[in-house]
């Protein structure tokens, strides 16, 4: 009974938690309100209190079978609690050293859900053929790596899996003995507590009451069969089937990832001494209205990927589970981390990524789940959204006003009100009488439109999409499994497409065809420049449990919704992006924005952080949420500029545009109840500031596109937190309010507080950093150093790391496609040794012809001709021929033609200006190698070498007459 | 139409060598005619020739002008290339009107509608279509002119109406002024009589009023009045609450996912006997009958004998409370005392000519006091009846005076509003439209604006009509008297939106031959933008505008 007391105590405590925001915390479960989480945490606390605790699971070594031709083995696993129940273990080592550990129940009453990984992985991973297992008496081991530095050890009794590097444990599974796979049972065999069984005498009753497995599973069968929450009852026909696994990082003091939560990047603790949060991190895709800016509550998407980081090592795990999962985090010492993962259903399927650097992790994870898709270039421009632009004339007038104010914008968005009765695809002709004409008016300026398509279909006979889905039988079923599930959403009484059903895929793709498809329905009232926004795909169900679908709903293949919930949201943007590709010939890159996501979603499009609030807190949270998404693969991310809810004051709006301009995905959005806040509506001086910010973003599109190109090949995120760029710098491990943009060398710290005039920026190395705007040179230190950077409302703390070359396009245009022919400016920021390097990637920005080599990928290098030389050369050279395997994702461009069709189309594009920062003295001559002298202008100032701070020397070379697609060298004689 | 986006991609290769072409660009390309004289090399310089940025900040080579590289901080060295952000480009558009575009649109691959001569792009990219554009423009202008001409005729009829109205008001003021003078005299006369008569009987009346019956009656009446006041307050509140809840019920956003809201809606539905809104919505989908079926079935309350129904209370309580208790008191006296016939004596005044009344009054007082003294007439029996009647005459006379005064005041106000720039315009051209109601049916609703009065949203399929606000002002962003001032009307303080502001309307008007609303939009929650036309905005052509036209 002790447990019951503590439980009610916990409930009481919950009641006293003050609700600071409008979020309805009571609409969402805490761990204590979810039976399996309660059981999992109780298990952990029993283990904590029991010195002699030992996992009941062991490997049956007699059943061990090592594959002859690849690095895998299988073995039976037994639980001392239930000797009759059989489990299987399957351990594999991939050819890049990633270890995959799978465990399932064998010959059970039912089958556990085992398809989560198949939705996340791009392909079945290749197993190593070089690594071999050594079977011993107590364990089985494999030693591998270039210097045999890595080792996997699987202990038999109890079952324990460890990855070691140089003899040091990096990742341990079941080290604390919390592994528990609840086997399937019948309700009859698992008798409710306290109900005496007839025909047994008292003594026998007493014996029955003491469950032999109670030391491990607890005295009571807590929440095994039926659970109610918020007036909804989950019938739980399969009974208990949860999975608990502890994962330790004995030598890593920081963990990151497991988005999506509104928490700091360096995940705060949830257990142990003085935990920051009381509840574990929850992964259960949820539409949380007005979510809190600091909480472990689950949000719209889930990526069960966690990085563990220390100065000498980064490792990561991907726990491929799709059911509701709670994760406790604790640092038993500052240098170690314990985690505990409690899932409601599914098999154990954990990928251990050995690192050892963050960049290695990104590569390993990208080989599993794919790299972020290279987005259409225009989608890196500015997106203007509102719930709602109310008519086609409204859209035209918004466009007109952007142009009147000479503010660049690429995309206008339509939220749900375009659709008649929220029947997506179907235009409300009262307000949008001429949708295609409207889109053509937008396209005339090189712009695009994004229109929302949600997964709930209005149940009405005059809606062809619903009718067809119903006839095809591709709608999610209710718990009986035979009738369409009906819930309530924007469109009123609705049903949901079951994208787990393969029959839905071709059908869904057909809907997006812009041409007539015979007697079948297709979206003829759209164009090839109509792109898609998928919202509400958690799924959000207004009258469902926790605003989502009942867990006992039935999906394709008979799986319950509980088994697939966290994957469910990913499938809509997945199939939609395929539909957009299939729509036109030749295919164009899709753009799909999704609110819900899972591991692998990076292959299909962008995400945003959902319905944030117009508060400073949320502005700050947006940054670390985007960083966390990025390290878990989902790098094309952003938060709604201005905040979805509320009417931000001018200062906040300006700051939010600064944040947005340095997010990978840059969109302003606003709730129906807010005042209009398009950037041209605000008064001066703020309007001018917003125009400058928008233009700055467009100026830097080459930087962003080049960063996305790198991410699309390597998996390294576009926004890079400090621990990723400087993995050995301890002081940077907790930093999440400043970050680098790709490999460009740009370091930004957006201001997210009121009344700021200057700000501290952390410099992690002994290097010169230049203020992007003022060219002020700051000096870092090998021990790390804070410098003060001006940050008044019109200023963005943006630094160029010495040693970088930043390519920009400085002519404002109305939209990014109109910049295609514009010349480039190169900012050459010399490092202390007089060296600098940068990259520029270009392609047509919208088709897949880059995969055929229609690209321009240049490297710019500035260096002295010899160490003490007084000559500096800035040169441009082709990178494709140097790195044919890293030029585009998944294709080796060994036959690259520098005069490819795309390169030819931009062969007249010049470098119009070179800004060289940090020269020691005024040059005596500047010329193109083998050409004429060039016009240049020198303003003396601080040199890159030395220790001085202050405005750097600037050499501006005017119109050097060199072209961006060509090799060239400019010689600067000091 | 000019070729637009379709042209972009093919143009790219054509335009590739942009800088090479730019090198040969005319130095005055893109320069506004007013600045042409400044685009010449400095005379002082010999070789090479130089030029000074227009802001004087820098001297550059003359060859740097229009060389597709931005040298001047003010951007003035690149009038024709778009190399300098924030500068402008001038298209001559010969055959049409010259125009200025921002530099961001120069050499971007698109042929700007504003530059029909194609000069915003490099030669050969955009055709010169100024002849056609100019013609079409002039034709369109001619159309606009025709409408304006026709409209301005109607407008002058509005002005004539205002003039007539002015005369009418002036006449009214004159006649009411006379009437007021007469009525004032009459009131003074009656007041004199009443005062004198009342001072005599006041004491007697006070005595009667001391009767417990009367006092209790007054107390009851006061209590009843208070009760009625409170009752009305409650009714008002109940009505307002009902409106709020109705709006909540029909308008609540299920995405708020707020069970408290849902409970409130369900609670209200059961209290008000309404079907659940979700069922209503479903029914609407199922059948064409969209109307909300009220299932209200108020159980008839059993009332005790003599008790008033709610309807009676509404209708008759006011009348009851209007009872003149003093008269009642006197009647009561009359009733309780033995019946007696009224002496003609006391009514004599009614038969006397007005001029004699004062004398008669004096005479009567004397006579009555005698009779009283002699015990012939009971003290104070019926003289107050006379007073009541006199007082009534006075009240009526006073009311008539006030009416006349009000009429005059209103006429004076109307007259001053008539030509108030902040009212009906300097020429009174809007007076004619006061109270004119314009409607626009947009399917679910009909929007109605009664000019200078109120705007409303009326549901077409039944339901509540919402006020969108009362007339508040003309365009606050323009000066009264300026034509721009009359292009917008604001209506404010309409019914409050649930979770939103009070409804309001901005009516945006332009010259047209008819008074009509053309479009209705709700760009922000409960803020409506209506556009429409009216002849009142069709200004007549004066000689200067005629000249302008000739220039085209």
TrEMBL record, chain A:
GO terms for molecular function: alpha-glucosidase activity; carbohydrate binding. Residues 715-806 form the Glycosyl hydrolase family 31 C-terminal domain. This is Glucosidase II subunit alpha. One of its GO terms (cellular component) is glucosidase II complex. Residues 1-22 form the signal peptide. It is found in: Endoplasmic reticulum. One of its GO terms (biological process) is carbohydrate metabolic process. Transmembrane segments: none annotated. Residues 372-707 form the Glycoside hydrolase family 31 TIM barrel domain. Keywords: Endoplasmic reticulum, Glycoprotein, Glycosidase, Hydrolase, Signal. Belongs to the glycosyl hydrolase 31 family. Pathway: Glycan metabolism; N-glycan metabolism. Residues 89-328 form the Glycoside hydrolase family 31 N-terminal domain. The keyword Cell cycle does not apply. PROSITE patterns: GLYCOSYL_HYDROL_F31_1 (PS00129). InterPro entries: Gal_mutarotase_sf_dom, GH, Glyco_hydro_31_AS, Glyco_hydro_31_C, Glyco_hydro_31_N_dom, Glyco_hydro_31_TIM, Glyco_hydro_b.
From TrEMBL, chain B:
PANTHER family: GLUCOSIDASE 2 SUBUNIT BETA, N-LINKED OLIGOSACCHARIDE PROCESSING. Residues 130-237, 387-414 form a coiled coil. SUPFAM superfamilies: Mannose 6-phosphate receptor domain. The keyword Manganese does not apply. This is Glucosidase 2 subunit beta. GO terms for cellular component: glucosidase II complex. The keyword Signal applies. It comes from the Eukaryota. Residues 282-304 are annotated as: Disordered. Gene3D superfamilies: Mannose-6-phosphate receptor binding domain (2.70.130.10). Residues 435-540 form the MRH domain. It comes from Gloeophyllum trabeum (strain ATCC 11539 / FP-39264 / Madison 617). InterPro entries: Gtb1-like, Man6P_isomerase_rcpt-bd_dom_sf, MRH_dom, PRKCSH, PRKCSH_N. Keywords: Coiled coil, Disulfide bond, Endoplasmic reticulum, Signal. Residues 1-22 form the signal peptide. GO terms for biological process: N-glycan processing.
């Amino acid at each position: 009974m002790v447990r019951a007391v503590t439980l009610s105590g916990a409930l009481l405590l919950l009641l006293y938690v003050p609700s600071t925001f409008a979020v309805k915390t009571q609409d969402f479960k805490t761990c204590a309100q979810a039976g399996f989480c309660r059981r999992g945490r109780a298990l952990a606390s029993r283990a904590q209190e029991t010195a002699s605790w030992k996992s009941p699971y062991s490997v049956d070594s007699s059943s061990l079978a090592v594959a002859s031709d690849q690095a895998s083995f299988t073995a039976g696993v037994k639980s001392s609690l239930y000797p009759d129940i059989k489990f299987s273990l399957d351990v594999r080592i991939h050819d890049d050293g990633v270890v995959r550990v799978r465990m399932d129940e064998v010959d059970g009453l039912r089958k556990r859900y085992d398809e989560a990984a198949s939705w996340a992985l791009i392909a079945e991973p290749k197993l190593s053929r070089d690594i071999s297992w050594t079977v011993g008496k107590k364990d089985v081991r494999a030693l591998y790596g270039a210097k045999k530095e890595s080792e996997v050890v699987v202990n038999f009794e109890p079952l324990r899996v460890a990855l070691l590097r140089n003899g040091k444990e990096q990742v341990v599974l079941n080290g604390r003995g919390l592994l528990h796979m609840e086997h399937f049972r019948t309700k009859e065999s698992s008798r409710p507590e306290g109900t005496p069984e007839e025909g047994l005498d008292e003594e026998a009753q007493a014996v029955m009451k003491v469950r032999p497995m109670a030391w491990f599973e607890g005295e009571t069968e807590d929440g095994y069969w039926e659970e109610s929450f918020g007036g909804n009852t989950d019938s739980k026909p399969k009974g208990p089937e949860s999975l608990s696994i502890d994962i330790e990082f004995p030598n890593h003091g920081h963990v990151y990832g497991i988005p999506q939560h509104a928490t700091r990047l360096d995940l705060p603790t949830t257990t142990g001494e003085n935990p920051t949060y009381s509840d574990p991190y929850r992964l259960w895709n949820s539409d949380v209205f007005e979510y809190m800016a600091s909480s472990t509550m689950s949000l719209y998407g889930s990526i069960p990927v966690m990085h563990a980081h220390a100065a000498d090592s980064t490792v990561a795990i991907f726990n491929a589970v799709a059911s509701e999962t709670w994760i406790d985090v604790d640092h038993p010492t500052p240098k170690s981390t314990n985690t505990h993962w409690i899932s409601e259903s599914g098999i154990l399927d954990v990928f251990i990524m050995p690192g050892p650097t963050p960049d290695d992790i990104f590569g390993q994870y990208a080989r599993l789940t794919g790299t972020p898709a290279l987005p259409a270039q225009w989608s890196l421009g500015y997106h203007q959204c509102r719930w709602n632009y109310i008519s086609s004339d409204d859209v035209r007038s918004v466009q007109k006003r952007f142009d009147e104010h000479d503010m660049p914008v690429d995309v206008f968005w339509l939220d749900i009100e375009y659709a008649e009765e929220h029947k997506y695809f179907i235009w409300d002709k009262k307000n949008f009488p001429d949708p295609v004409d409207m889109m053509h008016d937008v396209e005339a300026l090189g712009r695009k439109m994004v229109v929302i398509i949600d997964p709930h279909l209005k149940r009405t006979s005059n809606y062809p999409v619903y009718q067809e889905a119903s006839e095809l039988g591709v709608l999610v079923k209710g718990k009986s499994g035979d009738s369409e599930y009906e819930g309530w959403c924007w469109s009123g009484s609705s049903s949901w497409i079951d994208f787990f059903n393969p029959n839905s895929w071709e059908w869904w793709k057909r809907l997006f065809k812009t041409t007539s498809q015979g007697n079948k329905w297709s979206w003829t009232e759209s164009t090839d420049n109509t792109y898609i926004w998928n919202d509400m795909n958690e799924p959000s169900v207004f009258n469902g449990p926790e605003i989502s679908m009942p867990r006992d709903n039935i999906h394709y293949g008979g799986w319950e919704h509980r088994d697939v919930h966290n994957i469910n949201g990913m499938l809509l943007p997945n199939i939609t992006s395929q539909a957009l590709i299939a729509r036109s010939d030749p295919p164009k890159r899709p753009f799909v924005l999704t609110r819900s996501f899972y591991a692998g979603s990076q292959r299909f499009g962008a995400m945003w952080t959902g319905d944030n609030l117009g508060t400073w807190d949320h502005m700050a949270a947006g940054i670390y949420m985007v960083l966390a998404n990025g390290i878990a693969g989902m790098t094309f991310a952003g938060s709604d500029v201005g905040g979805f809810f509320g009417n931000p004051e001018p200062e906040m709006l300006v700051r939010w545009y600064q944040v947005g301009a340095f997010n990978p995905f840059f969109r302003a959005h606003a709730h129906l109840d807010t005042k209009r806040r398009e950037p041209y509506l605000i008064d001066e001086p703020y309007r001018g500031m917003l125009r400058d910010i928008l233009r700055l973003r467009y100026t830097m599109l080459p930087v962003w596109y080049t960063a996305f190109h790198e991410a699309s090949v390597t998996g390294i995120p576009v926004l890079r937190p400090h621990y990723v760029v400087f993995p050995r710098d301890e002081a940077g491990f907790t930093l999440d309010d400043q970050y680098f943009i790709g490999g460009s060398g740009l370091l930004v710290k957006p201001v997210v507080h009121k009344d700021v005039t200057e700000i501290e920026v952390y410099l992690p190395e002994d290097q010169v950093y230049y203020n992007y705007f003022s060219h002020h040179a700051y000096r870092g230190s090998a021990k790390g150093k804070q410098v003060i950077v001006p940050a008044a409302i019109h200023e963005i703390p943006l630094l160029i790391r010495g040693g970088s070359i930043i390519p920009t396009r400085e002519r404002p245009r109305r939209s990014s496609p109109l910049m295609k022919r514009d010349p480039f400016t190169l900012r050459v920021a010399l490092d202390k040794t007089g060296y600098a390097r940068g990259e520029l990637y270009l392609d047509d920005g919208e088709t897949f012809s880059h995969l055929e080599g229609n690209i321009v990928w240049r490297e710019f290098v500035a260096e002295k001709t010899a160490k003490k030389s007084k000559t500096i050369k800035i040169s441009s050279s082709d990178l494709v021929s140097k790195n044919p395997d890293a030029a585009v994702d998944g294709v080796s461009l060994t036959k690259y033609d520098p005069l490819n069709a795309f390169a030819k189309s931009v062969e007249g594009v010049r470098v119009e200006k070179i800004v060289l920062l940090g020269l020691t003295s005024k040059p005596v001559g500047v010329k193109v190698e083998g050409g004429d002298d060039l016009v240049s202008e020198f303003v003396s100032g601080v040199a890159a070498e030395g220790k001085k701070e202050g405005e750097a020397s600037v050499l501006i070379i005017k119109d050097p007459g060199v072209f961006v697609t060509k090799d060239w060298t400019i010689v600067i004689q000091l | 139409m000019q070729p637009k986006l379709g042209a972009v991609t093919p143009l790219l290769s054509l335009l590739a060598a942009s800088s090479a072409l730019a090198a040969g660009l005319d130095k005055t390309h893109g320069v506004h005619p007013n600045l042409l004289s400044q685009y010449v090399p400095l005379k002082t310089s010999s070789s090479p020739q130089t030029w000074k940025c227009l802001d004087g900040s820098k001297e550059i080579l003359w060859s740097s002008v229009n060389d597709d590289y931005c040298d001047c901080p003010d951007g003035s060295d690149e009038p024709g290339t778009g190399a300098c952000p924030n500068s402008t480009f001038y298209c001559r558009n010969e055959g049409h009107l010259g125009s200025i575009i921002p530099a961001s649109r120069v050499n971007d691959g698109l042929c700007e509608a504003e530059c029909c001569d194609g000069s915003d792009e490099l030669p050969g990219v955009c055709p010169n279509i100024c002849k056609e554009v100019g013609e079409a423009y002039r034709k369109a202008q001619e159309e606009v002119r025709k409408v304006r001409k026709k409209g301005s005729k109607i407008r002058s009829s509005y002005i004539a109406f205002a003039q007539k109205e002015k005369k009418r008001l002036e006449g009214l003021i004159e006649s009411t002024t006379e009437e007021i003078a007469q009525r004032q005299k009459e009131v003074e006369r009656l007041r004199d009589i009443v005062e004198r008569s009342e001072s005599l009987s006041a004491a007697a009346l006070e005595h009667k009023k001391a009767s417990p019956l009367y006092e209790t009656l007054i107390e009851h009446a006061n209590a009843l009045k208070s009760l009625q006041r409170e009752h009305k307050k409650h009714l008002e509140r109940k009505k307002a609450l009902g409106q709020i809840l109705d709006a909540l019920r029909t308008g609540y956003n299920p995405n708020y996912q707020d069970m408290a809201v849902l409970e409130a809606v369900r609670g209200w539905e059961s209290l008000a006997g309404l079907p659940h809104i979700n069922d209503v919505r479903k029914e609407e989908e199922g059948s064409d009958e969209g109307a909300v079926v009220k299932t209200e079935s108020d159980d008839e309350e059993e009332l005790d004998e003599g008790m008033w129904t709610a309807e009676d209370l509404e209708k008759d309580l006011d009348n009851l409370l209007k009872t003149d208790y003093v008269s009642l008191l006197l009647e009561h006296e009359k009733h309780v005392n033995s019946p007696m016939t009224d002496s003609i004596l006391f009514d004599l005044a009614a038969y006397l000519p007005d001029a004699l009344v004062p004398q008669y009054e004096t005479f009567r007082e004397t006579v009555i006091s005698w009779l009283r003294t002699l015990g012939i007439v009971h003290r104070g029996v019926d003289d107050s009846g006379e007073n009541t009647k006199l007082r009534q005459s006075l009240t009526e006379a006073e009311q008539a005076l006030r009416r006349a005064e009000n009429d005059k005041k209103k006429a004076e106000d109307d007259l001053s509003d008539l030509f108030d720039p902040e009212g009906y315009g300097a020429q009174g051209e809007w007076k004619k439209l006061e109270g004119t109601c314009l409607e626009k049916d947009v399917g679910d609703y009909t929007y109605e604006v009664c000019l200078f009065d109120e705007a409303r949203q009326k549901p077409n399929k039944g339901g509540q009509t919402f006020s969108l606000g009362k007339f508040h002002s003309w365009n606050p962003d323009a000066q009264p008297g300026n034509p721009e001032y009359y292009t917008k009307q604001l209506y404010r303080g309409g019914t409050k939106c649930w979770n939103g502001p009070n409804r309001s309307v901005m009516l945006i008007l332009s010259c047209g031959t008819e008074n009509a609303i053309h479009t209705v939009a709700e760009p922000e929650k409960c803020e409506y933008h209506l556009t429409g036309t009216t002849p009142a905005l069709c200004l007549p052509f004066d000689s200067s505008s005629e000249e302008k036209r000739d220039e085209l």
